[in-house]
Amino acid sequence: MVAAHPARPSERELRSASKQARRSNGEDAPTSLEDIAAGIQVCRRCDLWRNATQGVPGLGPPRAALMIVGEQPGDQEDLQGVPFVGPAGQLLDRAMAEAGAPRDRVFVTNAVKHFKHEPRGKRRLHKTPDRGEVQACRWWLGAERRLVRPRVILALGATAVQAVFGKALPIGKTRGQRQALDGGELALVSWHPSFMLRIPDRDAKDRAYAELVADLKQAWKLAG
Questions:
Q1: How many domains is the chain built from?
Q2: Within a domain: residue 7?
Q3: 163-170: which pairs have CB atoms within 8 A and are 24 or more residues apart?
Q4: b/e 137-147 (16+ beta carbons within 10 angstroms → b)
Q5: CA-to-CA distance for 31 and 28, rounded, in angstroms?
Q6: What does pTM read for this prediction?
Q7: Residue 192 neighbours by CB distance under 10 Å
Q8: In this structure, is residue 189 part of a structural domain?
Q9: Quick one: which of 67, 103, 166, 181 is 20 to 30 A from 222 by CA?
Q10: Does residue 3 register a pLDDT over 50?
């Protein structure tokens, strides 16, 4: 019996695969958020894709006035393919509601689009992306910024600050201070919700949460 040859990809499939490969390597700039979402799935700019379930692009209105940038997808985000749906995302939702910033009018994304982790038994434990991984993924964040064109960007946590500003900033000293970016957006920094989940002291946790709510309120007001 002669084995059947695999079906030859159609010309359309070949063009699509070639197009996404070029975009993932930074040769072609995406022209839509759908292009970005597709390109992230075939991105090989760093090695984080190897152990991730899928890439997680940003989500929100294509012309949102406010963009929120976190660190990376967590365990639940990696499984669902949606940013900020795990415990930190639920805390962010609560803070946004208190700040009067409707999530469905905000574009939420991450500095790094694949989940970096290490296995520990049946669990997958978060690992902080290194500088090279953040730099590799800045191309995608830059593409999201160019297409969404937000008035204000709120960077949550040190990794997001590095991705948005291209350098480290002390969050405790710079939060609440608006800064102009090269792209013309105003930028603010604040604590990442996951940071609060790790604070053992209740008073310190409450202070950090109140500061996040205040920063969200300021960002939303500036965006409006």
A1: 1
A2: no
A3: 163/69, 163/111, 163/112, 163/134, 163/137, 163/138, 164/69, 164/111, 166/138
A4: bbbbbebbbeb
A5: 9
A6: 0.88
A7: 24
A8: yes
A9: 166
A10: no
